[in-house]
Each structure stands twice: as C-alpha cells, then as structure tokens.
C-alpha cells in the first residue's frame, strides 16, 4: 500500500461547523476516526533472520497487512539476547506503526537475567495478541544409553553432575530449561554453554555431548531422520507434530517450558488505534491459511478462531512468567552482566 500523503491544512471554520463535524465523527467507525494505519507498519523482530520468531513474524506481518490494507516491513534487530530490538520498540512513537514480535525468553527472562535490560517488560509495552507457543524438545544423541525420561533421571541420580547438556549460551532458554529440570526433578545435569545454538547442536549431533534442549521447528528434521532421539517435549502436553513423544510434565509434575510468541506495541497506544490493530489481528488469527502456515512451523496456536487470547490475558501470562523465570534464574545463579 502507498503511504498516504498528509492532508492539506484546514481553513478556519465556525464553532457551529466544528460541532457538526464532531457529531459526524462520533458516528464514524473507529478506524475512520484515526485513519490508522496511515503508513506501512514496521514489525520489529529482536532476533536474527531465519529463527522461529522471524519466521512467525513474517507470516503474521503479511496477513496483518492484508487485513489492515497496508504494507508491512519486518525489521530484524538482534543483539543482547533480544534487548536491542525490544528497547527500540519501547522508545518508538506510540501510534501503532512500530510493533514488537517477541518471544518469552526476551520479554519474560531477560529482565531477571540482565542487570539493565534497558526496558520495562510490563510498563513499556501494550499487549496486543498472543500468537502461540513453540515447545522445546529434550534431545539425546542416539548413542546415549537412556532412551526414556525415567531412564535419564535414574542415570542422572546415579551420576550427579556427570551428565552434560549443551545450550546456546548462559541464560538462554535451553539453558534454563535444564536448570528447571534439575530443580523440579532433583537431579544435577551439568550445563555446557556454547556461543549460539548452531555449535551446540552440531556437537550433540556429533556425539561430543549427549543432551540438548532444542526448539521443535529447528530440530524436527533431525528427529525424523534418526540423527537425534526425542526423549520429551518441554510443554505441558504432547505436541501434535510428535504425538508419540511424551511431555516432561508426564514424569515431572508441573514442568512446563514452552516458548510463547506474542505481539506488543509501545505503551500509551491510543484506544482507537488499539481497537483497529486488535481487529486486524483477530481477523489474521482467524484466517485458515495463516493458521495452517503457523502450525506447519510447529507453533501451537493460542486460543481458537472464535475465542482468542485477550490483551489482559496476555498481560497476565507475561507477569506470571516473569515471576516464574526470575525464580529459576536466581536459584541457578545464571547472569549475563
């Protein structure tokens, strides 16, 4: 969609004309009152291109643009575990033209992990829409002797501190998922951090380390080819893409470590703009084509086309996860700066 040009300046009018105009405006739909969107929407993804959040962001951006009849641009702004892009949106204009497609590790974990993340995850943002969740998978090299979670836990208890698991780095979600398993199952898996998920995954594929928590979309090909063995998914329930793989919660009651993906705007979004944006996202999230694309990426969609997650419900999930991960970060001693 072309960017609208600014309207010409309005000549002086009488008070009567102004009152009449105001009355007419009251009868207009919300989107007509705000003229939103007035230009292309920039969807900031605070992770590098090619990752799960980037893939989801591009699918959502295209469909949201269709529903709002506007162009959309996905802007990757990675760095500092997602803090750089998140900070940028927190400081952006509060007009709904700059949005944040983020994941729970950036929005809910970073505030506990970094001394100064540069943003308030609650106070600096307006929740717009929960997209869905992506489970991680507890993976093992085929040569690893434990073939099930009970066998893994028994082996870990017999060799405290000896079994190692790889992660993309200190404080990353796949590090903290292991720490949460240690705390909730009473075991001592030894964390080995790498500089990114690719080298960690490569070493587990090569048998240098036996275990790894990996996102389902990025590891499904290795599971299907037999290069990695899926012991369990990190979500509370089994994944439709791996129906024969149990959830960790089946063996460790209460364990739930999914990565959720959600859309936020800067705080102070005008109510009329928020209403129009929510309308567009509701239409997008009800779209069969978009839902099929997301599910093909391993995304477990939030809500249903008829009953979607509300902004207030998303805000409650965020606050709950901030408290949950702050406890895990504190007890594990993980820190970045």
UniProtKB/TrEMBL annotation:
Signal peptide stretch: 1-32
Family statement: Belongs to the UPF0065 (bug) family.
UniProt cross-references to Pfam families, sorted A to Z: TctC
Domain of life: Bacteria
Record's keyword annotation contains Electron transport: no
UniProt keyword list: Signal
Protein name: LacI family transcriptional regulator
């Amino acid at each position: 969609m072309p960017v609208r040009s600014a309207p010409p300046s309005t000549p002086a009018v009488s008070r009567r004309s102004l009152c009449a105009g105001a009355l007419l405006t009251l009868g207009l739909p919300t989107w007509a009152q705000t003229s939103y969107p007035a230009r292309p929407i920039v969807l900031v993804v605070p992770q590098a291109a090619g990752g799960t959040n980037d893939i989801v962001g591009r699918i959502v951006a295209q469909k949201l643009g269709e529903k709002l009849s506007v162009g959309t641009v996905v802007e990757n702004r990675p760095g500092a575990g997602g803090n750089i892009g998140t900070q940028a949106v927190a400081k952006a204009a509060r007009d709904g033209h700059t949005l944040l497609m983020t994941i729970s590790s950036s929005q809910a974990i970073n505030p506990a992990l970094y001394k100064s993340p540069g943003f308030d995850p609650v106070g600096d943002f307006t929740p717009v829409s929960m997209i869905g969740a992506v489970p991680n998978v507890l993976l093992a090299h085929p040569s690893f002797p434990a073939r099930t979670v009970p066998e893994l836990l028994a082996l870990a208890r017999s060799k405290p501190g000896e079994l190692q698991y790889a992660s993309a780095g200190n404080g990353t979600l796949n590090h903290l998922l292991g720490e949460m398993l240690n705390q909730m199952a009473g075991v001592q898996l030894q964390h080995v951090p790498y500089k990114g998920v690719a080298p960690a995954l490569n070493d587990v594929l090569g048998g240098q380390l036996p275990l790894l928590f990996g996102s389902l979309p990025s590891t499904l090909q290795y599971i299907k080819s037999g290069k990695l063995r899926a012991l369990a998914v990190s979500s509370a329930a089994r994944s439709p893409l791996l129906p024969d793989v149990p959830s960790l919660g089946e063996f460790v009651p209460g364990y739930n470590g999914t990565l959720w993906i959600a859309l936020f705007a800067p705080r102070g979004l005008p109510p009329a703009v928020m209403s129009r944006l929510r309308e567009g996202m509701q239409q997008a999230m009800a779209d069969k084509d978009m839902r099929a694309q997301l599910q093909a990426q391993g995304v477990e969609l939030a809500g249903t086309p008829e009953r979607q997650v509300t902004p207030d419900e998303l805000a409650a999930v965020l606050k709950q996860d901030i408290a949950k991960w702050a406890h895990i970060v504190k007890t594990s001693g993980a820190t970045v700066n």
